Amino acid sequence: xxxxxxxxxxxxxxxxxxxxxxxxxxxxxxxxxxxxxxxxxxxxxxxxxxxxxxxxxxxxxxxxxxxxxxxxxxxxxxxxxxxxxxxxxxxxxxxxxxxxxxxxxxxxxxxxxxxxxxxxxxxxxxxxxxxxxxxxxxxxxxxxxxxxxxxxxxxxxxxxxxxxxxxxxxxxxxxxxxxxxxxxxxxxxxxxxxxxxxxxxxxxxxxxxxxxxxxxxxxxxxxxxxxxxxxxxxxxxxxxxxxxxxxxxxxxxxxxxxxxxxxxxxxxxxxxxxxxxxxxxxxxxxxxxxxxxxxxxxxxxxxxxxxxxxxxxxxxxxx
Length: 319
Hints:
47% of the residues lie in helices and 6% in strands. It is mainly alpha-helical. The chain folds into two domains: 18-179 and 286-316, 3-Layer(aba) Sandwich (Rossmann fold), CATH 3.40.50; 188-282, no CATH class.
């Protein structure tokens, strides 16, 4: 019997909504539920392939949420936690992986270095530009183990799905909400309230005193200005938000990502960073340009590079 190559797409419901998405556009599945459903579907298919044809070699490709799922499965296999043998994974390609490993020492950097600097062991191989930040859901802690040299990752500059700078605190703060089911909202709110109270109770007394003084000073200043000239109240409140140190002082006590996200919107440099990332993603099509943006000196796009690389791996197996 001759050797053959086949291609197939593993179906799953790709959603990230939960209660928020249900209201906004009718997507009831949370990111976590959709991710788990897709991961289970891929693992089930791999187990079937291994059972029906144990000599088969498999290449796995994924884009966006698909690459998140593919990467999760590959991480398990590469770290000897999966049911499919690592030796039978021929190659893998991840386009815009939401769990991309950071490739810069400073996750706050708005741009990456000229070449990837691997920050975690067992990281995937990178091709193309090296943007700053990391995947929006955070990196996989175990990497890809023995598959690290067979998993190739592509992330376009300005694609906030795979290159989210930690300066984009407002975007990062929204991601956990995408994993909330309806029944989780109450407990989540309670847990965040407990965290807030714990942070305040354990804060440095000097920080608490500083925050209280800042609040007292600003409240007194605003009250006095409003009593003299009520029309000045909006301007005084704006000055408190954008020019005073009060909000920063409160942040030292609160220590909550949600508060940091709000605070980042009052800082021109961080607000500009977030605006640029949102514009790159939504308006400039950074997330959908993998068939156009060059990733090597020959000007090949990520999809073309990946197709040629996979063909070479397949031909090397004698197919």
